[in-house]
Amino acid sequence: MGRILLGDNLSRLKKLATGSVPLIYIDPPFNTGRIQKRQRIRTIRDEVHGDRSGFAGKRYRTEKLDGPAGYHDIFDDFLGFLQPRLQEAYRVLSPAGSFFLHLDPREVHYAKVMLDGIFGRECFQNEIIWAYDYGARSKSRWPAKHDNILWYTKDPANFTFHLDECDRIPYMAPKLVGEQKAAKGKTPTDVWWHTIVSPTGKEKTGYPTQKPLGVLERIVKVHSNPGDLVLDFFAGSGTTGEAAVRNGRDFLLMDSSKEAVAIMRKRLAKWTRKKK
Ligand SMILES: C[S@@+](CC[C@H](N)C(=O)[O-])C[C@H]1O[C@@H](n2cnc3c(N)ncnc32)[C@H](O)[C@@H]1O
């Protein structure tokens, strides 16, 4: 049964036993310099002030509605904020455990240097590029449509990696590999094409920066064993928890936002340990 904790993750992490967690995935704020908030809008029929056209040329006006509170993603010293938390992640990771840090190109290179210092360069295993294609496309530079996920292991040679458990993807040129292979598909490389959480789909919780379940399920299936504990200490809407329980793993989720914790509790109610 999983657990969800509200509060700053650093003090919570300090209470966890050394070497006790087989899989950690975190998706901290990216230091975008913005308040992350999902903007809700409604459109109202308005022939006079309408700012967009709809069916049969009718005019509609767009109104912005108040959304959920969101969270601050502005840091004077982002690396100074991350450093003690990454250090704790290393401490609580079990001897054959894996650690995943999800960022984007703004901060990932600095974080890589920091993690090399904490884990040792030999413990760096992969930089996974999560590539998607959604939203506005810049015309003045290449549209930035990927995130970076760094994978480190506590031990450079002894770690869990069940590639056979991974979902398979289609070949780019199926005709070149024959019918049988094409039907089976192939395992992915370190570039993962996966759509974002659809703003209108069933998976959407309404929490800003929610990550797709498909990406998290791949990590959980390949990098942990059934029954293992999966920790996410920047858990947001609880995607890691859902990926864990769907695959027979336990979860421990932390977040400092009341709104995030409320969303997680609702999303994972079936699988969450009740507070005494
Ligand atoms: C990018 S979001 C995580 C989104 C999540 N992966 C999902 O799929 O919904 C980052 C989260 O970190 C939380 N956070 C920021 N600082 C924190 C801290 N010091 N302790 C715990 N959580 C924190 C924010 O409230 C936010 O929910």
UniProtKB/TrEMBL annotation:
What Enzyme Commission number(s) apply to this enzyme?
2.1.1.72
Catalytic activity annotation: a 2'-deoxyadenosine in DNA + S-adenosyl-L-methionine = an N(6)-methyl-2'-deoxyadenosine in DNA + S-adenosyl-L-homocysteine + H(+)
Enumerate the Gene Ontology biological process terms.
Answer: methylation
Q: Which InterPro entries match?
A: DNA_methylase_N4/N6, DNA_methylase_N6_adenine_CS, N4/N6-MTase_EcoPI_Mod-like, SAM-dependent_MTases_sf
Q: Which Gene3D superfamilies does the protein's record reference?
A: Vaccinia Virus protein VP39
Question: Keyword S-adenosyl-L-methionine, does the record have it?
Answer: yes
Question: Which key words tag this protein in UniProt?
Answer: Methyltransferase, S-adenosyl-L-methionine, Transferase
**A GO term, aspect molecular function:** site-specific DNA-methyltransferase (adenine-specific) activity
Tell me the ranges covered by the DNA methylase N-4/N-6 domain, including all copies. Answer: 22-264
Is Methyltransferase found in the keyword set? yes
Q: Which superkingdom does the taxonomy of this entry point to?
A: Bacteria
* PROSITE patterns referenced in this protein's UniProt entry, alphabetically: N6_MTASE
Similarity comment text for this entry: Belongs to the N(4)/N(6)-methyltransferase family.
Kindly provide the name given to this protein in its UniProt entry: site-specific DNA-methyltransferase (adenine-specific)
Highest lineage ranks of the organism? Bacteria, Pseudomonadati, Acidobacteriota, Terriglobia, Terriglobales
